[in-house]
Amino acid sequence: GAYSKLQQERISSKCIKPKIIMASPSQLKMVEREALGAKDHHDRVKALFPKTFGLPRVELEIGAEADTPHPPLKVGVVLSGGQAPGGHNVIAGVFDYAMKANPDSKIYGFLNGPHGVMNGVYCEIDQDIMAYYRNTGGFDMLGSGRDKIESEAQMASSMAVVTGMGLDGLVVIGGDDSNTNAAILAEYFAANGCATKVCGCPKTIDGDLKNEYIPISFGFDTAVKTFSEEIGNVALDTLASQKYYHFIRLMGRAASNIALECALQTRPNMCLISEEVEAKGMNLLQITHDIADMVVARAAKGKHYGMVLLPEGLIEFIPEFNHLIAEINNVLASGVEPTIEAMSAALTPTNKAVFAFLPKTIKLQLLLDRDPHGNVQVAMIETERMLAETVAAELERRRGAGLFLSRFMTQFHSFGYEGRCALPSHFDCSYSYTLGYTAAALIAKGQSSLMASVQNLQSPIEEWTIGGVPITMMCHMEHRHGKDKPVIKKALVDLEGAPFKAFAKRRARWAQTDVYRAPGPIQFYSAGARDTNMTLMYELLG
Ligand code: FBP
């Protein structure tokens, strides 16, 4: 086969499991805890989920119930949104629960994301297929997709599909939007007399789907370890060559959770955090000056190299940039030619000044690289190059004034896709598996609109606890595409949280000393193999 020796070993190795899921399914007792409302806009969210709002949180414990045989289960699984390491183990968890409950159970995998649910495109997952994907990275088992089941027709067709298949439940493996979608589907099914239950599992490398009951999303741990390995290696390279400033952009859409964790792991000279940029109202000029100040101070110590990390969402957190982009979109829509001269002439004074400050390549990108609606594609902007160019221009200005006499040579990297399908860490293998197992257990107990919740992660894996939390409890109202919608609130970097504080306390020292840390590749068999990430540990232990 195509598998390497390590992949083969991982597939056949046993995932470390919490004691609670080693019990037989019939020994699991469900205990109802307090009912939970919405994160915010309580009444408005409640009005949109008349059947499923205000459900109690539940915990699964080993109880003294009789060991009675469970009827066969029929469960569908769907992978939704961006890939994240551990997805296959969620499916393995669902599969193993259902088979342990009754060997005549059936597990179906919908293909290519929610599109497969709406259109009834699925495959049956048997022991052989499952065995081929255990502990492996990525979503290649079923494929994924970013479709949303939104319209009445899409919900009706999804309902017809799951009813036709006779599903007891559907497990949605996705991020904030996909789980919001799961809650909407659960409500729709409940309101329309469909017996299929819908439960979610928290997925995303971005680490922005978490709350007091969901300590982390699966995939984050493996992705940050993969990026940190690469960053650590680049750091040692630059320490040896003493030649370059490396600017590294890290995925994570809006949230800077990934960048922050990578900084804690590797101790770069600088790491920008979008949430802080926004909170302090920093503009491009200030960010440029901060980096230039660091370069000048390091140059004074004879250091002409360094490491700068930045989150992919940075630009959207700089208010002046958003204003500029909005005006560019309007100006282009009014038919002005997409040239630098024509745009400069058309912009209002403040935006014109920001535009003038940008490097030429970025100006052209803003004018020419547009989506099918004609809008600037902010996510496509290579922020690392943009900042390096504005810093280089600032350093030249300082050189002219005799304030900077050395060199500033740069290299660029962008890490994202290489972490989304990596072989999952022990943490992600166990966490994902436990999430899947829990989701199947919740469905077997007739629960719907809950997200699987695995807690006590500060303790050894064997001691983890499991349960379910109403998805609507995580929702608030947001204005999207001109409409108010209930959505799960994204967990951005908390500037008052322990992970950010740990970083903020140390960053001034990291800027000038080279205490780069190279964590190396993810370990499966040696010391530290069970270690999780620093963000989670700071959050759980302070
Ligand atoms: P999810 O929230 O769907 O898990 O997406 C994660 C992510 O990797 C982001 O970090 C990134 O911005 C985006 O997906 C990239 O998406 P695409 O795969 O469409 O290029």
Amino-to-carboxy terminus distance: 45 Å
| Computed CA radius of gyration, to the nearest angstrom | 25 Å
Low confidence ranges = none
Shape: globular
Mean pLDDT figure:
94
Structural class: alpha/beta
Strand content: 15-25%
| Secondary structure: helix percent | 40-55%
Number of helices: 20
Lateral strand order in the biggest sheet:
1-2-13-12-7-6-3-4-5
Describe the structure.
One of its GO terms (cellular component) is cytosol. With 542 residues, the chain is of the alpha/beta class. The protein has a nine-stranded mixed beta sheet, sandwiched between helices. Strands 9-10-8-11 form a four-stranded parallel beta sheet, sandwiched between helices. A two-stranded antiparallel ribbon has the order 14-15. Helix 8 crosses helix 9. The longest helix is centred in the middle third of the chain and has 22 residues. The chain is globular, with a radius of gyration of 25 Å. Bound molecules: 1,6-di-O-phosphono-beta-D-fructofuranose.
